[in-house]
C-alpha cells in the first residue's frame, strides 16, 4: 500500500505538552518537515526559547540548545560563528523576541547573521498565564491589562516584521499564519524559503507566524482561529516583506 | 623564550590565543578595552572569530552558544559589565559548559569609577546569578601570573565543564611588566566532548544543551551533582602563596594587587623589627582554607586587607573559625591602599603606637 502521509523524521516521538488547539504544534511540525525535506536534519542546531515552546528541544529531532528568555539570537550567533557549516535556527515567542529580547533580534538581523528565526506571535504571554505582550492588540484583555490594552498606557502593538524589514542585514522577512490548510501550506513555503536563504548564505531570515493561544485568550480552538483571522491579520498583514534581490 | 614587556590586558589576550582560544565575544568597558581590541586584531590571524556584541548580555549568551557548539571561548569585561553577564553565567554553569570569563575589576557600586578595586569578590565567589553554582576564580597578582593562569583557566574549564573566572583589577590590567610565554601544555587529562551541538549527521541521538529541570527531584539531583563537582574543585584546585610565615605576630590575607602592597609593608615592618606574614589566595573559589591549618604559635591574629569594604573577610573568618581575632583594613572606590596605611593598621591591631 502506498504511503500518502507519515510522520516527519524531524519530530521525536515525545508527546507534546501544548494545550488543545494551540498552533505551536503545527508550527513545530512545519519546521521539522522543512528540515527533513531540505535534508539538513543532521546539520541543524536549534535554539529553544523561554515560553510555551521552552521544551521544543524535546520535540525537534536535531541538536538543540536552550536559551534564556530573549537571548536565543545571541546564543545562535555563538553557535553559528563556531559552526558556520551548520544550519542554525531559533524558535521564539513574542514575549521572548519582541520584549525581553528586542535588542538581540534587532542586532542579529543587523549583523546579517546567517541564521533563521521562527517567530511565533500569539499576541500574549502563554506560559506565564496570559500577561500582556508588546504584540497584544489594542482592546485585547490580558491579566496585566484587565480592561484591555490602550495606546495611551502601553503604546501600539509592535510590528516586529515591519521593523526588521527595514534592516539591511535581514535577507528574508515574511509573515504567515496557520489558521487554515491553505495558510499552513503558505507558511511552510515561507519557512522553507527562509532556511534556503540561510543555506545560500544570504543573511538573516525570519518568518513570523501568527498563532493562537486558546487557553489565555479564553476561547475554544475554533473561536481562536476566527479571532486570529478577524483581529490579528488586519493589524499584522500577511505577506513577504523582504527577500533576497535575485528571488524577487 | 626571551622576556617581553607587555600590558596586562594584552598579555591576557595573547595568553588566551596561545591556550587555543578561538572565539571571543565582548563589549567595551574601561579598564579592560585592550583585551577585545587585542583579540579583534589577533584572533582572525589564527582562524578564530572576534565579535563585538551589542551588549554584555548578548556577549555572554554568544559565549554560551559557542561553548555548547564546542568552541574554546572567552569573554572579558569589568564590574558593571560582569553584573550584566551574570544571567548568562548561571545558565552556562547550569548547562555545564566550559568558558573563560575575565573580570578586570573597577570600583562600584553602580557605575562606580574606572580605578582599580576588588569589590566584586562576593559577586565572583558567591555567584551574582541565580541558583546554587560556583565558578573557579583565579586572582593573579602580576602580569606573568595572569598569563600562566589563563592557560590553567581554559584547561580547568574543560576539565570541570564549568565557567572559570580570571579576576584582575584595573591596576594589573593596565600595568606593563616583563613576561615570558612558557611552553603551553596542559597538566590535565582533558575529557572529549561528545555532548557538543555540531549536528547529529544522522549518526547519533540529538544533543541538548540545557539547564531546565521542571521536575523538582531531577533539579535537586542535578544540584547535588554540581555540588560534588565544586567539592572536587575545593579538594584539588585551591592555591595560595605564603610569604614570611615563619614566626609572624600577625598574618595578613590579601590577593592580587593588594598582596603586592602588603608585601612591601611586611618588608618595611621587618626592618622595624615587626614580623608579619601573608597568605595570598591565588584561587578565591575555592578559598585556600588549608593555608590556615598549620599557623605558627607566634600568630596573635589575622587581618584581611582588601581594595573593598570587607568582602573576603567573611572567607578569612570561616577559615580561621574563631581560633584567632580577625581584623580588617580596606580602601575602596579606586583608592589603592599604601604600605604606610597597611603598616598603621597592623600596628593598631597589635596594640602598638603608630
Ligand atoms: C528572565 C526571565 N524573565 C521572565 C521569565 C518568565 N517567563 C517565562 S515564559 C514568559 C513569556 C513567554 O511568552 P512568549 O514568548 O510570548 O511565549 P508563549 O508562552 O506565548 O509561547 C515569561 C515572561 C523568565 N523565564 N525569565
Ligand atoms: S498557553 Fe497558549 S501558547 Fe501556551 S500551549 Fe497553551 S494555548 Fe499554546
TrEMBL record, chain A:
Protein's GO biological process: cellular respiration
GO molecular function terms noted in the UniProt entry: oxidoreductase activity, acting on the aldehyde or oxo group of donors, iron-sulfur protein as acceptor; thiamine pyrophosphate binding
Alphabetically ordered keywords of this record: Oxidoreductase
SUPFAM superfamilies associated with the record: Thiamin diphosphate-binding fold (THDP-binding)
Domain of life according to the entry: Bacteria
Domain Thiamine pyrophosphate enzyme TPP-binding intervals: 57-209
Organism from which the protein derives: Helicovermis profundi
Protein name: Thiamine pyrophosphate-dependent enzyme
From TrEMBL, chain B:
Regions annotated as coiled coil: 216-246
Domain Pyruvate:ferredoxin oxidoreductase core: 249-340
Lineage: superkingdom: Bacteria
Classification via NCBIfam families: PRK07119.1
One Pfam family linked to the record: PFOR_II
Protein name: 3-methyl-2-oxobutanoate dehydrogenase subunit VorB
CDD domains listed in its UniProt record: TPP_PYR_PFOR_IOR-alpha_like (cd07034)
Location of the Pyruvate flavodoxin/ferredoxin oxidoreductase pyrimidine binding domain: 15-213
PANTHER family associated with the record: SUBUNIT OF PYRUVATE:FLAVODOXIN OXIDOREDUCTASE, SUBUNIT OF PYRUVATE:FLAVODOXIN OXIDOREDUCTASE-RELATED
GO molecular function, one term: oxidoreductase activity
Amino acid at each position: 500500500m502506498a504511503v500518502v502521509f507519515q510522520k516527519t523524521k524531524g519530530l521525536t516521538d515525545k508527546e507534546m505538552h501544548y494545550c488543545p488547539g494551540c498552533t505551536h504544534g503545527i508550527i513545530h511540525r512545519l519546521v521539522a518537515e522543512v528540515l527533513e525535506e531540505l535534508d539538513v536534519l543532521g546539520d541543524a542546531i536549534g535554539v529553544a526559547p523561554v515560553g510555551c515552546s521552552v521544551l521544543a528541544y524535546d520535540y525537534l529531532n536535531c541538536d538543540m540548545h536552550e536559551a534564556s528568555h530573549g537571548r536565543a539570537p545571541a546564543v545562535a550567533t555563538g553557535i553559528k560563528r563556531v559552526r558556520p557549516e551548520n544550519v542554525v535556527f531559533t524558535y521564539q515567542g513574542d514575549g521572548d523576541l519582541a520584549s525581553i529580547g528586542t535588542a538581540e533580534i534587532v542586532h542579529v538581523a543587523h549583523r546579517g547573521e546567517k541564521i533563521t528565526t521562527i517567530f511565533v506571535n500569539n499576541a500574549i504571554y502563554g506560559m506565564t498565564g496570559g500577561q500582556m505582550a508588546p504584540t497584544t492588540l489594542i482592546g485585547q484583555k490580558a491579566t496585566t491589562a484587565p480592561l484591555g490594552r490602550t495606546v495611551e498606557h502601553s503604546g501600539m502593538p509592535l510590528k516586529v516584521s515591519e521593523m526588521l524589514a527595514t534592516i539591511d542585514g535581514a535577507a528574508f522577512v515574511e509573515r504567515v499564519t496557520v489558521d487554515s490548510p491553505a495558510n499552513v501550506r503558505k507558511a511552510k513555503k515561507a519557512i522553507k524559503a527562509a532556511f534556503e536563504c540561510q543555506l545560500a548564505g544570504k543573511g538573516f531570515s525570519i518568518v513570523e507566524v501568527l498563532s493562537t493561544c486558546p487557553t489565555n485568550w479564553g476561547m475554544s480552538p475554533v473561536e481562536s482561529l476566527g479571532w486570529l483571522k478577524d483581529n490579528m491579520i488586519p493589524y499584522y498583514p500577511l505577506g513577504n516583506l523582504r527577500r533576497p534581490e535575485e528571488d524577487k | 623564550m626571551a622576556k617581553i614587556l607587555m600590558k596586562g590586558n594584552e598579555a591576557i589576550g595573547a595568553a588566551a590565543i596561545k591556550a587555543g582560544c578561538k572565539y571571543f565575544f565582548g563589549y567595551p568597558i574601561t579598564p579592560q578595552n585592550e583585551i577585545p581590541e587585542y583579540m579583534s586584531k589577533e584572533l582572525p590571524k589564527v582562524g578564530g572569530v572576534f565579535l563585538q556584541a551589542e551588549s554584555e548580555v548578548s556577549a555572554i549568551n554568544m559565549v554560551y552558544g559557542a561553548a555548547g557548539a564546542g568552541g574554546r571561548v572567552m569573554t572579558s569585561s569589568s564590574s558593571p559589565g560582569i553584573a550584566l553577564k551574570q544571567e548568562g553565567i548561571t545558565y552556562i554553569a547550569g548547562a555545564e559548559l566550559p568558558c573563560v570569563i575575565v573580570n578586570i575589576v573597577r570600583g562600584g557600586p553602580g557605575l562606580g569609577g574606572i580605578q582599580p578595586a576588588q569589590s566584586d569578590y562576593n559577586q565572583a565567589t558567591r555567584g551574582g546569578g541565580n541558583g546554587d553554582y560556583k565558578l573557579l576564580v583565579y586572582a593573579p597578582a602580576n602580569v606573568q601570573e595572569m598569563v600562566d593562569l589563563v592557560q590553567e583557566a581554559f584547561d580547568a574549564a574543560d576539565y570541570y565543564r564549568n565557567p572559570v573566572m580570571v579576576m584582575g583589577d584595573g591596576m594589573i590590567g593596565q600595568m606593563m611588566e616583563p613576561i615570558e610565554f612558557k611552553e603551553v601544555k596542559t597538566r590535565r587529562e582533558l575529557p572529549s566532548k561528545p555532548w557538543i551541538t555540531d549536528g547529529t549527521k544522522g549518526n547519533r541521538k540529538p544533543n541538548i544543551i540545557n539547564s531546565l529541570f521542571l521536575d523538582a527531584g531531577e533539579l535537586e539531583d542535578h544540584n547535588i551533582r554540581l555540588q560534588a563537582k565544586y567539592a572536587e574543585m575545593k579538594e584539588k584546585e585551591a592555591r595560595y602563596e605564603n610569604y614570611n610565615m615563619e614566626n609572624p605576630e600577625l598574618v595578613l590575607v590579601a590577593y592580587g594587587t593588594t598582596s603586592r602592597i602588603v608585601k612591601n609593608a611586611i618588608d618595611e615592618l621587618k626592618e622595624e623589627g615587626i614580623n608579619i606574614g601573608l597568605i595570598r589566595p591565588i584561587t578565591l573559589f575555592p578559598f585556600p582554607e588549608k593555608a590556615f591549618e598549620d599557623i605558627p604559635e607566634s600568630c596573635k591574629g589575622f587581618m584581611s586587607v582588601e581594595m573593598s569594604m570587607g568582602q573576603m573577610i567573611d572567607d578569612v573568618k570561616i577559615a580561621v573559625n574563631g581560633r584567632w581575632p580577625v581584623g580588617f583594613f580596606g580602601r575602596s572606590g579606586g583608592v589603592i591602599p599604601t604600605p604606610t596605611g597597611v603598616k598603621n593598621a597592623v600596628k593598631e591591631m597589635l596594640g602598638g603606637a603608630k
